[in-house]
């Protein structure tokens, strides 16, 4: 999301270096054919919602802009779907890891209202920040004091009544051991509180070592290795893949890419971790996101194909809708029709 609030959309500049690098690794025609074939075929039996879905909600839900009528309408919209978790933007964190309480002054109103209107749906605090590394400003995970402050911020929102915490820290390079250390610390807190720890995750290497090639050529991180994805997944209760902003220009290629990403994630995620594939509930056109290609329907088809091919019996699987304030009626309709 291109917003000062932070979001689970990877913030990449408009560059073609990586695209050129991939063309050197594999002919474009070969890659396109492989993705198109990945998008073909029939769904596996039972590849529909497991009641583990989630939706990212904007900051207006906790800063006073949303009212009772808004909550009633939203509850009616998601009632009867597979949505179980709301990731509500309660940040952003400060660059030192702290979180001013005034950023979520209406949290109790939202939490109590959701629990009344849609019993069983959990309200998680979505916390995030820009990480330093690719630019001089941002949160530094290498600083132990900052990591400790992030844990205290998580404790702070749980004390405020949230049912869990969802983290989106980016851009986060593959293999970041400080991030894994932070997750270990957060997991001790959430396990003690018996609440879920959830994270938004980068996409997984679509080609061997793509993350390393990209990092070497651009100094930036877009993908994680499959091994690192698995390390993260083992430390959390939910992992939501940001499976959008893929640069794919055609719906069939995007859907095939999501099918591949789904399979790669399921191959390494433990059975007791929820794996969620992101759905693009937003409408923009740029080099990273082609609106006519990255559709909800294509993402759902890709997720269903990947699930059916890789782990059709898996119960802990769902989709995550990004984001409520940018969604159109057609997005909600495609979600209901394609996944239920």
What does this structure look like?
The protein has 340 residues and is of the alpha/beta class. It is 40% helix and 16% strand. It is built from eleven helices and ten strands. Strand 1, helix 3 (68-78) and strand 2 (83-89) form a beta-alpha-beta unit. Helix 1 crosses helix 7 (210-218) and helix 3 crosses helix 4 (107-117). The protein is globular, with a radius of gyration of 19 Å.
Distinctive features:
alpha/beta, 16% strand, 10 strands, disordered N terminus, 11 helices, globular, 340 residues, eight-stranded parallel β-barrel, 40% helix, two-stranded parallel sheet
- Shape, principal axes of CA atoms: globular
Tally the helices: 11
Mean pLDDT: 91
Roughly what percent helix?
Answer: 40-55%
Strand order of the largest sheet: 1-2-3-4-5-8-9-10
Span from first to last CA? 27 Å
Uncertain regions spanning at least 5 consecutive residues: 1-5, 11-27
Write down the Rg: 19 Å
Strand content: 15-25%
Largest sheet: 8 strands, parallel, barrel
**How many strands in all?**
10
In short:
Helices cover 40% and strands 16% of the residues. It is built from 11 helices and 10 strands. The strands form 2 sheets. The chain has an 8-stranded parallel barrel, surrounded by 6 helices. It has a two-stranded parallel sheet with strand order 6-7.
